[in-house]
Design goal:
alpha+beta; Kinesin; 12-stranded mixed β-sheet; 5-stranded antiparallel β-sheet; 12 helices; 44 strands; globular; binds adenosine-5'-triphosphate; nucleotide-binding; motor protein; Kinesin_motor_CS; ATP-binding
């Protein structure tokens, strides 16, 4: 992937002609072009407040271009969209054109055109242009063109290219983080291969018929959903390097912002309207956050629309916004709102990248990957075999996308059996984040599977607002044994350096699938690891502590950092440190002769006389795993170093009701070796000792 310079989102204004009602009412024009540079089309436009307002104000706005009723859509295409289409088709860029504006302002007219007046919309002109460019290239390259069409209706994504008889339910799509880019991935979206302009237009028309439309007082054919029509253009050249590029072009026709008083919406339409306005206000928030210099958190996850547009606003896509307005004074407030929105958007900077790869390089990468995975499979096969013989486990099924390299930590603990058995099988995640799927078998042998909504094993954790989190560690705790079990998971919001830590708590009745709830802080209590604690959470546990206010014992979530404790009690952030508890209960701090400090994790230390696995913090608070051999003089010889992003472990609880013990680690850890066994030791004095097999070095831990 080649990176280019950043560029701002281009913003064009399109003002429709007066409509019939406005003509009948002798509406007055409130918009005027002040300046227009004929060469680069930059313009200043003036918006004048209506006479009915006490103070008449003229406001000036600068944009990349302005089009009124004298300009057909073709002009917009020639001035701005054509070069974008060419960049996407021939150079592998991603491009997005989105139309924004109040209801009835001409968004669909601009994007889809109008058959009655035989005015083509941008989508059909662009489709034609893509195929013409390919023809002109004399087929030196091999092109594959696909199209997709979706809508967001009432905060749900629907595939518009599914057969007519499919129900709304079956056309529902899910958004997932795309691990390989800053954007999102839409699972199961239909991508149709297209070989001609007509075929592509046919799919476009097919989708048009499926999109949700309605009639309001403001617009007879009002879009009740946001739609996105996408073209994917892949090309591969035939030379030895087999250069491969993939461009994607999106046309987004947003539903219009509406006022109930003007549209006369009621019932279902009022509900639609509320959802439309909510998602547009989420988009507004994202735009505002992106242009504020001191904001680190961009609330992309507040709505489906903002997640869908994540890469187009503030990402790696070349983006053009077309803000549609009405010329009439009657719509002054809405027009002012749109122009402000558009003006803010103009300050957003994207960093477009060329999506390319040489097949030659790709093949080499694949070959190395296959070799590495073979080694993993060979080693884990042996363990899988012994695992199934001893406890008869069901095979864990992974999402196809992640099957090759998904971490699976698995632990079983049986009260009835004299032997405490635990087997842990891991493979490396192809995601950039740590993943853990698990089957927990409690002391009563009840099985809880952690599933997401589609009954797939969890890959990334989502809360009830569809916010996704990076998994850090987990812990099981039976707070109220009679009624339900809670699993508490420590998570980190994805992609945000200064992210907060919270827990997701899942309640379940026995035998029911767990439902994840962001029970804890709702993102209000943020533990800024770098600022507040100046440290990284290394592991955590649930322990009984004394509530300082009530003096009664209470269960607390205790987060351990390399330097102190953080106690979270009853979901309230209680105290920062607990100095009278020795830190060495959980960490052994080793100081090397050179002055280097090692923090010994409780899970990975060795009971064999002189071998240790320890974590060393570097200046960036990244952990490195060291395999250390203690020599006779108790100094340390560092003979192996493995990158570890974070490591979290749970303590083996003393509580009789909690005979489960979990192992978790980041995926970086998993490549030290994917197999981990915990078995009963024969000798009495080693009854609680477990074995961990790391790269053929047998280590032990308690
Ligand atoms: N550039 C234009 N030239 C002529 N008529 C136009 C133009 N733009 C819009 N109109 C008229 O305005 C009407 C409403 O336009 P359109 O349906 O495109 O609005 P919209 O912004 O997509 O509304 P909604 O958000 O409700 O879907 C059209 O039916 C057409 O009559």
């Amino acid at each position: 992937m080649l990176s280019n310079k950043s560029e701002s989102v281009k913003v064009l204004i399109r003002c429709r002609p007066f409509n019939q009602t406005e003509i009948i009412n002798h509406s007055i024009k409130c918009i005027d072009i002040q300046q227009l540079d004929n060469k680069n089309r930059q313009c200043t436009i003036k918006l004048i407040s209506p006479k009915r307002y006490r103070r008449r104000i003229s406001r000036l706005f600068r944009f990349d271009s302005f089009y009124d009723e004298n300009h057909p859509t073709e002009h917009i295409f020639q001035d701005f969209i054509q070069s974008l289409v060419s960049d996407v088709t021939l150079n592998g860029y991603s491009g997005t054109v989105f139309a924004y504006g109040q209801t009835g302002s001409g968004k669909s007219w601009t994007m889809a055109g109008c058959q009655c007046q035989s005015e083509n919309g941008l989508i059909s002109i662009a489709i034609e242009n893509v195929f013409n460019l390919i023809h002109q290239s004399n087929y030196e390259h091999e092109f594959t063109i696909k199209c997709a069409y979706l809508e967001i209706y009432n905060e749900e994504l629907h595939d518009l290219l599914l057969p007519r008889n499919s129900s709304k339910l079956s056309s529902r799509l899910e958004l997932r983080e795309n691990p390989r880019s800053s954007g999102v991935h839409i699972t199961n979206l239909t991508w149709k291969n297209v070989y001609s302009i007509d075929e592509c237009l046919k799919f476009k028309r097919f989708g048009d018929l499926a999109r949700t439309m309605g009639s309001t007082q403001m617009n007879r054919d009002s879009s009740r959903s946001h739609t996105m029509f996408s073209l994917s253009i892949q090309y591969q050249n035939n030379s030895e390097t087999k250069l491969f590029r993939q461009g994607k072009l999106n046309f987004v026709d947003l539903a219009g912002s509406e006022r109930q008083i003007k549209t006369g919406a009621s019932g279902q339409q009022l509900l639609e309207s509320a959802k439309i306005n909510l998602s547009l206000s989420a988009l507004n928030k994202v735009i505002s956050s992106l242009v504020q210099t001191n904001t680190t958190h961009i609330p992309y996850r507040d709505s489906k629309l903002t997640r869908l547009l994540q890469d187009s606003i503030g990402g790696t896509t070349k983006t053009i916004m077309i803000a549609c307005i009405s010329p009439s004074e009657d719509n002054y407030d809405e027009t002012l709102c749109t122009l402000r929105y558009a003006s803010r958007t103009k300050n957003i900077r994207n960093t477009p990248i060329i999506n390319e790869n040489s097949s030659y390089v790709l093949l080499q990468q694949y070959a190395e990957e296959i070799q590495r995975l073979r080694a993993i499979i060979n080693s884990s096969n042996i363990h899988m075999h012994s695992l199934s013989r001893s406890v008869g486990l069901n095979e864990t099924k992974f999402d196809d996308q992640h099957s090759l390299k998904t971490i699976c930590d698995r632990q079983i603990s049986s009260e009835n059996s004299p032997a405490t058995m635990a087997k842990c099988q891991r493979s490396v995640s192809c995601q950039t984040m740590s993943i853990l799927t698990a089957t927990v078998i409690s002391s009563t042998q009840t099985t809880y599977d952690i599933h997401d909504k589609d009954s797939k094993q969890i890959i990334i954790l989502f809360d009830e607002n569809q916010q996704s989190y990076e998994f850090i560690a987990w812990h099981s705790c039976q707070l109220s044994p009679k009624s339900y079990q809670k699993l508490i998971i420590l998570v980190k919001e994805n992609k945000n350096e200064n992210s907060w830590l919270g827990t997701l708590i899942a309640n379940t009745n026995e035998k029911q699938s767990l439902i994840w709830k962001n029970h804890l802080y709702h993102r209000q209590h943020q533990l800024q690891l770098s600022k507040q604690t100046d440290s990284i959470i290394t592991h955590f546990a649930i322990e009984e502590t004394i509530d300082s206010r009530s003096s009664s014992p209470t269960l607390s979530l205790i987060l351990y950092t390399s330097s102190n404790y953080i106690i979270l009690n009853n979901n309230i952030f209680l105290s920062l440190s607990y100095k009278n508890l020795p830190i060495n209960n959980h960490f052994i701090t080793l100081k090397e002769q050179t002055g280097s400090i090692y923090y010994l994790s409780d899970m990975l230390y060795s009971l064999s006389k002189n071998e240790l696995l320890v974590f060393k913090l570097d200046q960036n608070y990244h952990y490195r795993l060291h395999h250390i051999i203690l020599n006779e003089k108790f100094s340390l010889e560092n003979n192996e170093q493995v990158d570890v992003e974070h490591c979290c472990c749970c303590l083996n609880s003393e509580n009789e009701a909690l005979k489960t013990k979990f192992i978790s680690s980041s995926h970086f850890l998993s490549f030290i070796n994917m197999s981990c066994e915990i078995e009963e030791e024969q000798e009495e004095n080693k009854a609680n000792m477990h074995l961990i097999n790391v790269d053929n070095n047998i280590l032990c831990f308690e």
